[in-house]
């Protein structure tokens, strides 16, 4: 809980600084990259949370991985290292993205499908989500062949599951109850 509050504080500070310097878009791109990289790399995550690895080594690793990052992003990394909070980097990046989306009144809709969405279908989903929520929406398409067909749409806390696997599971439950 305290770690989450600290991540929010750092994210708010970076967003405020980035907005003042008119680089909030570039920093948001960096934060998305940081979030995805840390989530995808168990090794990087292990280095960040390991107290035995020296701060200088952590900084060297992060500098080489995110060498094209904005100055505000590199300053965040330096601050987290100086305060011995570098393990929060992934959380801070995720919170920054959430705060940035709130500031711009946008949201991200995650669409999980068995195959990649076509541009036409993506436009239809964007239009429907905007109609339902009234917010500008970006789509993140996640391909998961295990759902067999259909899609799972997740916007914020709402989820609509129209996957074939879900339909089959519902049928299975109906047959076992009767």
Structure description:
The chain is of the alpha+beta class and 178 residues long. It has 2 domains: 2-102, Peroxidase, domain 1 (Orthogonal Bundle), CATH 1.10.520.20; 106-177, no CATH class. Helix content is 63%, strand content 14%. The protein has helices at 2-20, 24-40, 42-49, 55-65, 71-82, 89-104, 119-133, 164-177; strands at residues 106-113, 136-143, 151-155, 158-161. It has a 4-stranded mixed sheet, sandwiched between helices. Strand 1, helix 7 (119-133) and strand 2 form a beta-alpha-beta unit. Helix 1 (2-20) crosses helix 6, helix 2 packs across helix 6 and helix 4 runs antiparallel to helix 5. The longest helix is centred in the N-terminal third of the chain and has 19 residues, at 2-20. It is found in: Cell membrane; Membrane. Belongs to the ATPase delta chain family. It is a peripheral membrane protein. This is ATP synthase subunit delta.
CATH architecture of the largest domain: Orthogonal Bundle
- The 3D shape can be described as globular
The top-level CATH class of the largest domain is: Mainly Alpha
Helix content: 55-70%
Strands side by side in the biggest sheet: 2-1-3-4
Task: Indicate the CATH topology of the largest domain.
Answer: Peroxidase, domain 1
The end-to-end span amounts to 44 Å
Radius of gyration: 20 Å
Low-confidence stretches: none
Counted up, domains total 2
CATH superfamily of the largest domain: N-terminal domain of the delta subunit of the F1F0-ATP synthase
The run of helices and strands is HHHHHHEHEEEH
Provide the β-strand percentage band: 5-15%
| Structure annotation, total helices | 8
Q: What is the count of β-strands?
A: 4
Largest beta-sheet characterization: 4 strands, mixed
Structural class: alpha+beta
Mean of residue pLDDT?
89
Main location: membrane
Membrane topology: Peripheral membrane protein
Protein name: ATP synthase subunit delta
Keywords: ATP synthesis, Cell membrane, CF(1), Hydrogen ion transport, Ion transport, Membrane, Transport
């Amino acid at each position: 809980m305290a770690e989450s509050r600290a991540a929010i504080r750092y994210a708010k500070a970076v967003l405020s600084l980035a907005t003042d310097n008119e680089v909030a878009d570039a920093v948001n791109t960096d934060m998305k990259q940081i979030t995805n990289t840390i989530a995808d790399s168990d090794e990087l995550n292990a280095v960040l949370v390991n107290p035995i690895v020296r701060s200088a080594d952590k900084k060297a690793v992060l500098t080489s991985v995110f060498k094209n990052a904005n100055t505000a992003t590199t300053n965040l990394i330096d601050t987290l290292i100086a305060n011995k909070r570098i393990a929060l980097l992934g959380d801070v990046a995720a919170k920054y993205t959430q705060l940035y989306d709130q500031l711009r009144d946008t949201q991200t809709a995650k669409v999980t499908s068995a195959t990649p969405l076509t541009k036409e279908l993506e436009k239809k989903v964007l239009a429907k989500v905007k109609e339902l929520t009234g917010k500008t929406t970006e789509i993140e398409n996640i391909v998961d062949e295990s759902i067999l067909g259909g899609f799972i749409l997740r916007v914020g806390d709402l989820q609509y599951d129209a996957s074939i696997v879900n339909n089959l599971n519902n049928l299975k439950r109906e047959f076992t109850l009767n």
